[in-house]
Design brief:
This protein is mainly α. It is built from 15 helices and five strands. A hairpin with a 2-residue loop joins strand 4 and strand 5. It starts with 17 loop residues before the first helix and ends with a helix.
Length: 357
């Protein structure tokens, strides 16, 4: 199908059908429960980082960029020996963080911010597509199923329209979660970049949750749901293009939000429980080195390094080494020499997040 005349938003038909409104209520309930629980946790960065790791891995896997948790851990700690795929996944996480910080600071999501996010993912400044020839093909048959808009001027017009739809709300606007389904469809159909469109689109999803105050932290992602339901995802995107089948597409996204919010809540509860357990154990076994700041450091990432402890706790290198050695002796950390430096892994957090897959 060659259809590069993509209609502007909003769609000109009724989106709030009875089936959609029923599923919308379930999705909003699950999301509100996740937000409510996450709001009670003192250090949200612990949750954000842990959940982001799985998202970076899953979103990249949709694009056939496959890595292991072990390799990703090396890439994140900037150790030698990480695979190119793991480095790409680490770049995705960097882009996600940057997008989150931009949205929190500016309280909007603009075309330029989206271009910046994609540039971090792809590690280039190619920007919006200028050359024709981009098509979407059926992976199995090689048949062209969709030709996105071509030409920078048209793509920028569509992105400008999308930016307005994202940021401007009116009293008669539809529910934000329904809008999210529309936004995701439209961005994927504009396909504004040569590469990284899928990953950028999935980052836009979570930034929209934060922008509309549906979540305070970027801790809910649809990538794992899309992986499990990948054929339906591509089929329904195409059915909106060819037959205006908005209802099924919106139901797909709303179901994904409900299921993913339930899974995310389960994971963040387990992480929070592990933080509290380790806090109590370190306080009991190593009272001389215990501090809230130390616990925060140990859970900020899968791993820590000597210089992180030096800076984070404002201690000397000798003291930092002593702390980390004590924690390893008591079984709280495991260490590995990678290249020239020693990396200390919080194995409990690592196993917990890995087990969630």
């Amino acid at each position: 199908m060659n259809d590069n005349k993509l209609p502007m938003l909003p769609p000109e038909l009724e989106l709030e059908t009875i089936a959609v409104l029923k599923q919308l209520a379930r999705a909003n309930r699950a999301l509100a429960e996740l937000k409510g629980y996450a709001d009670t946790i003192p250090n949200k960065h612990i949750l954000i980082n842990a959940v982001m790791i799985n998202e970076a891995k899953d979103s990249s896997a949709i694009e056939n960029i496959i890595t292991t948790h072990d390799d990703l851990y090396k890439a994140m700690s900037e150790a030698s020996g990480a695979s190119p795929a793991a480095k790409e996944v680490a770049s995705y996480r960097t882009a996600l963080w940057q997008g989150y910080e931009l949205v929190k600071a500016r309280e909007m999501l603009t075309t330029n911010m989206i271009i910046e996010i994609q540039g971090i993912i792809e590690k280039n400044r190619a920007g919006i597509r200028k050359l024709p020839g981009t098509v979407s093909k059926n992976e199995r048959t090689g048949e062209t199923v969709y030709t996105p808009p071509a030409g920078e001027a048209e793509i920028r017009d569509l992105l400008g329209n999308l930016e307005k739809y994202i940021n401007e709300d009116h009293d008669n606007d539809i529910d934000p979660l329904i809008k999210l389904a529309v936004i995701h469809y439209q961005f994927e159909s504009i396909h504004p970049f040569y590469d990284g469109n899928g990953r950028t689109g999935r980052i836009i999803n979570v930034l929209y949750f934060v922008l509309k105050d549906l979540l305070d932290s970027p801790i809910l992602y649809l990538s794992s749901y899309i992986i499990k339901n990948k054929s339906a995802y591509y089929r329904l995107l195409q059915e909106v293009r060819t037959g205006n089948n908005w209802e099924e597409w919106i139901l797909y996204i709303l179901t994904g939000i409900e299921e993913t919010a339930i899974e995310a809540l389960r994971l963040v509860k387990r992480i929070n429980s592990e933080v509290e357990t380790m806090r109590a154990e370190i306080k009991e076994k190593l009272p001389k080195i215990y501090s809230k700041e130390l616990i925060d450091l140990l859970f900020y990432e899968f791993y820590t390094k000597i210089n992180y402890v030096e800076k984070g706790l404002s201690v000397t290198r000798k003291t930092a080494v002593s702390y980390l050695n004590s924690l390893e002796e008591e079984g709280f950390l495991t260490s590995e020499k990678i290249g020239k430096e020693r990396i200390y892994q919080n194995k409990r957090l690592y196993d917990l997040v890995k087990q969630d897959k």
